[in-house]
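Dock flavin-adenine dinucleotide; give full complex structure.
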Amino acid sequence: MRQPRDISAVGGDDVVVIGSGFGGLSTACYLADAGADVTVLEKNEQLGGRASVMEEDGFRFDMGPSWYLMPDVFETFFGHFGRSPEEYYTLERLDPHYRIFFKDGDRVDMTPDIDANKATFEEYEPGASEAFEEYLTKSERNYEIGMEHFVYEHRDRLRDFVDTDVLRHSWGLSLIGSMQDHVEDYFDHPKLQQIMQYTLVFLGGSPTNTPALYNLMSHVDFNLGVYYPDGGMGAVVDGIVELGSELGVEYETDASVTEIAGRRGGFAVRTEAGAEYLTDRVVSNADMAHTEQELLPPEKRQYDDDYWESRTYAPSAFLLYLGVEGEVEELAHHTLVLPTDWNEHFEQIFDDPAWPEDPAYYLCVPSETDDTVAPEGHSNLFALVPIAAGLEDTPELRSQYRDLVIDDIAENTDTDLHDRIVFEETFSVDDFASRYNSFQGTALGMAHTLRQTAPFRPGHTSSEVPGLYYTGSFTTPGIGVPMCLISGLLTAEVMGRE
Ligand SMILES: Cc1cc2nc3c(=O)[nH]c(=O)nc-3n(C[C@H](O)[C@H](O)[C@H](O)COP(=O)(O)OP(=O)(O)OC[C@H]3O[C@@H](n4cnc5c(N)ncnc54)[C@H](O)[C@@H]3O)c2cc1C
């Protein structure tokens, strides 16, 4: 792994970071460590961005991310400051990693035991055990090369990709075909193809619109493992906020920024409450579409409205948070419920937006692992159905969909929740838009299609406003908690060289 670049040039600067998602929190830590005076302004009542936490009636729900993946990235992050994740939170490796209920009555567990997984694959298709091993070997190589040469590197411009070193390292990697074609080269059985592809939902894509370079996600899933931070993902937010405080970062919540105005030698950042922050530089971790369209005057925007309208957005989501009486023993901590043909659901996200009639969805039951997230004798779970960004979202539609999801869980997972629900709340398209200023209510930002990956994704520097920078999932490397942590490093490094 390369050494971090020198960020010390930011020392002594005042920096305002707008938004406290993982990208903003991470950037703030790197800058403060390098000697900058950093203030994070967060619109909402709590820090963490899409990793917000809801506490009601004794239940504690992670409202956003729930899969702790790529532990190596968190170690690298804390290691930069001479710390380790264990100083801030405790991790548990999950077993099984996850359970899948196929809607034809079949169910399968994927576990930390690779041999057990190989045997499972072989049961579905003769020869699949060997194919699985080959697939993982390639995925691991792609991960190592991808992380070193692409993810942790600044390759904001197309010409950065055509340097001979990168080409040499990319040789033989399956980069730009679709994930669907790539997976079909290894497995014929549709269920095995689904197992290798479900991780694309983390990237906000589908098997046909995501490039095959993301097969590296299988190394993440099977080899690096799936973990749970005790207390939930909110504990990771708390850990990074604590680290930032130790480094001198100041945080303000309920501070919704309404304007980034230029002034001689810097900026005036104004909030809804009428406060004004005079600063040398600004980093926006708010969704880039919001920053450009709402916080900057038209002549200072890099992209016009057509640009934002024409992007491919990652799905929004229908989230149903449930507090339930008793155990839900059929469900694992992470459970996927998949129709055997999920193409229609992907079409209803990306091609022909509609509320999916036969949804593929995810159930998270942290109370299987952690008894602090629900009152005694109760279970804490949420259902997450990916739906198209920008979809019509009304109380009536939510209520109908809530019934559909509860019925579907009963039908496909032997878990009848109908008469056991003691707390429930929904969160969907309109909430993403209003709570996070998310464009079209996307849950994740811009999808990782080929045309929105690496040099084709917005970079960390504003080309129109010197001193304004971006971080988080709209920029490179992209979506997901580990990627946003790395984005913070890349943003700080860009600032250090200017
Ligand atoms: C439901 C869901 C499930 C997910 N599951 C996983 C998972 O299991 N594992 C994983 O790794 N990733 C997961 N992700 C993705 C991951 O959570 C995100 O990619 C990541 O947290 C985004 O971080 P970010 O840095 O882009 O900032 P964000 O989290 O998007 O935060 C941006 C912040 O900016 C604030 N803001 C916006 N406008 C303003 C303004 N004008 N003034 C001040 N503040 C403003 C917002 O309120 C927000 O707090 C999930 C996401 C969601 C929504």
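Observed: The longest strand covers residues 316-325.
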